[in-house]
Amino acid sequence: MKLRRIIGFILGAALIYFSVGAYFSDEPASKTDIGRIMVFVAGAFGLLMVISNLFATKTPQVNQAVVTQASDPIKVPCPVCQQPIDKTFHHCPHCGINLHPLCPSCSRNVSPEFKVCPYCATKLKDE
User: Fold this and answer.
1) For residue 5, how many other CB atoms are within 10 A of its CB?
2) Integer Cα distance of 84 and 69 in angstroms
3) Using one digit for the tens of pLDDT, what is the confidence trace for 79-125?
4) Are 49 and 12 in contact (CB under 8 A)?
5) Domain boundaries, the chain
6) 60, 63, 82, 123: least buried by Cβ within 10 Å?
7) Distance (Å, rounded) from C-alpha 127 to C-alpha 121?
8) Contact in structure between 51 and 15 (CB atoms under 8 Å)
9) pTM of whole model > 0.70?
């Protein structure tokens, strides 16, 4: 970012230098009304570039710890062994339980703790 500000400052200073040189030169194109307007616009733009790059504030740096925390997976306790696991897991890596079982009758997702399917009343576990 610092290099971009330096290049902007140099380009702005060059525009000012060339517009002042064109204004005071004996070039016939710079003595017309349109020529003087163009020289003035180029000089004003160069001055704007110099000032904006001189007084530019620092851009805030992104804290890598915050970015890492935002991309960390959401942890939830396993319903059987209570170990923390990623919310997107299909099986617990600690106890091996299927976290998204399907009812054998209606094939809908049911919770691993359910003993009976809430949709079709099929028995899921032996007691």
Assistant:
1) 14
2) 16
3) 889 999 888 888 889 998 888 888 889 989 888 888 899 999 998 87
4) yes
5) 2-54, 70-127
6) 60
7) 15
8) no
9) no
